[in-house]
Amino acid sequence: MDLEFIMNIFPTLLKTLPLTIYIVVVTAILGFLLAVIVTAIRLKKIPVISQLMDLYTSFMRSTPGLIHIFVVYYGLPVLFRAIGIDINFISRVTFSITALVLYNGAFVSEILRPSYLAVPSQQHEAATSVGMTNWQKHIRVIFPQVLPIALPSLGNALIDLLKDTSLLFLIGLVDIMGQADIIIANTLGVYQLEVYVTIALIYWGCSILLEQVIRFLEKKTGKYLR
Amino acid sequence: MINLKGIEKTFDGNKVLKGINLEIKSGEVVALIGPSGTGKTTLLRTINFLEKADKGSITIDELTIDNEQVSEKDMILMRRQTAMVFQNYNLFRNKTILENVMEGLIVVQKKSKEEAEKIARQEIERVGLLDKVEQYPIELSGGQQQRIGIARAMALHPKVMLLDEPTSSLDPERSLEVLKVLQKVAKTGMTMVIATHEMDFAKYVSNHVVFMENGHIVEEGSPEKIFTDPSQERTKQFVQELENPFT
Questions:
Q1: Minimal Cα distance from A148: which residue of B?
Q2: Residues of B with CB below 8 A from A225's CB?
Q3: Which of B178, B106, B93 is CA-nearest to residue B137?
Q4: pTM of the model
Q5: Would the CB atoms of B93 and A224 count as touching at under 8 Å?
Q6: d(CA B143, CA B148)
Q7: How distant, in Å, are the alpha carbons of A126, A153, B6, B124 from that of B53?
Q8: Residue range(s) defining the domain that contains residue B99
Q9: In this structure, is residue B195 part of a structural domain?
Q10: Which of B191, B34, B201 is nearest to B20 (CA)?
Q11: In chain A, how many H helices and how many E strands?
Q12: How far apart are CA A11 and CA A24, in angstroms?
């Protein structure tokens, strides 16, 4: 192991970190929104759409993320060209986010659904009995109780998402992994081990940070559970 | 005044309420007694529209709702005239004691925060738990939680308070602590309907006893009449068994 080499490539690799963080944050937010919609449809059992959503979550969760990235990146332009729209101007980052949102949304939906169902029915009844509307009940009583139940799993999904971004270099995105790939190529593979160990440490550091954020939120939302 | 006419309710082909007619005057404390599974709880829940009856009409003061053509909006309107106290308390777990009592006042009755807090504190004081306002339900004993359940219902100033076996999850001592609070509430002139197995409560606090069995009202009347001189054979049997369980 060449420690001096590691010290040298570290800043170069870190420079790509903002892109990874950007993708993770945007995907996490959009994926969560998608998951909320999918979960709501499935819980309300709206005919036809509900079954379609079941199909969507089942397919997405049972197939590798890499395939979704390829399908979105190579497939969407073909699909759009077939209906006469050119989407080649769309950036790799957008394709990446699209693929990961679809993938992550399915997972998060499968976290939110059981978490919602874990809130006792008596809590629904209590809110209804004081005269709240369905919407008031959910905002004031139910959702605040879904959150602490869901958070530990949401944390795992977030860390999985971070790790999934390491696949994006395969469609030519220069994120941490992409940069690592370039460094390895430039040094003709001599420093492979050093590069991989370095980015592993970077991913680890990011995961620890995400974990801390989730822990904080768990404490904040679950203070009534003491 | 509350008037129930021909209330029927069926669950999965099992008829639980078979045409209930009941009139409750303002300020009355009604004890619903009878064996388990006779529809006491279901009857309370239909008045609160947690359960929609299949047939019959419900009148609370000047508002009459026909169950066969009731809209979601009507149900919310009716619920806002009533308040429910549950067997398992059902306090909002994510809210403090004070917030539990304030919640309906702010969200449903659109009162200001200051006004809601003032009312809430009064009601919490009535049930003797002012020192617990900042705590969460999980930190209170069952009896204390139920007293807050009563305070939450009282704070809404409902036209009728519905209590579904409020003491059956409690040990005798805690149960007594809740019953004493209920006695206090009864003295305020609050109209109450209470499904209960506490015969002493029915005897000494209520002024209108309704004996139910198998989805029917078998007999109703003053506590004196029901407990000392019932006209129906079945009522006599039920009361006697409670008085002398081992003879």
A1: B94
A2: 93, 138
A3: B93
A4: 0.89
A5: yes
A6: 9
A7: 19, 40, 10, 33
A8: 91-157
A9: no
A10: B34
A11: 11, 0
A12: 20
Which amino acid is located at A31 in the chain?
G
Tokens 């919310």 found at: B76
Angle at B122 between CA B2 and CA B104, to 5 degrees: 55
Contact flag B92-A126 (C-beta cutoff 8 Å):
yes
CA distance B99 to A182: 58
Greatest Cα pair distance, chain B, in angstroms, is 58
Cβ-defined contact of A131 to B86 (cutoff 8 Å): no
pLDDT tens sequence across B47-92: 999 999 999 999 999 899 999 999 999 999 999 999 999 999 999 9
Longest dimension (CA), chain A: 71
Q: Is residue B117 part of a domain?
A: yes
Q: How confident is the model at residue A226 (pLDDT cuts 50, 70, 90)?
A: low
Tell me the pLDDT tens digit for each residue of B138-182.
999 999 999 999 999 999 999 999 999 999 989 988 999 999 999
Q: What was the pLDDT predicted at B200?
A: 87
Q: Which residues of A touch B92 (CB under 8 A)?
A: 123, 126-127, 140-141
Q: Are A130 and B158 in contact (CB under 8 A)?
A: no
The interface predicted TM-score (ipTM) is 0.91
Q: Using CA atoms in the order A121, A126, A129, A132, what is the torsion angle rounded to 10 degrees?
A: -90
Residues A29 and A103 sit within 8 Å (Cβ to Cβ): no
Task: Count CB neighbours of B188 within 10 A.
Answer: 10
Q: Where are the alpha helices (DSSP H) in chain B?
A: 40-47, 72-79, 97-107, 113-126, 142-155, 172-187, 199-204, 223-228, 233-243
A128: nearest CB among B79, B152, B156: B79
The full length of chain A comes to 226
Structure tokens at B200: 């002493």
| Fold exhibited by the domain A3-225 | MetI-like fold (1.10.3720)
β-strand pairing of B216-221 with B63-66 = unpaired
Q: Which residues of B touch A126 (CB under 8 A)?
A: 84, 86, 90-92
Give yes or no for a contact between B87 and B166, defined as CB atoms under 8 angstroms apart.
yes
Select from A126, A130, A145 the Cβ nearest to the Cβ of B156. Answer: A130
Structural domain boundaries in chain A = 3-225
Query: For chain B, how many structural domains are there in total?
Result: 1
Minimal Cβ distance to A122: which of B48, B90, B139: B90
What CA–CA distance (Å, rounded) separates B109 from B79? 12
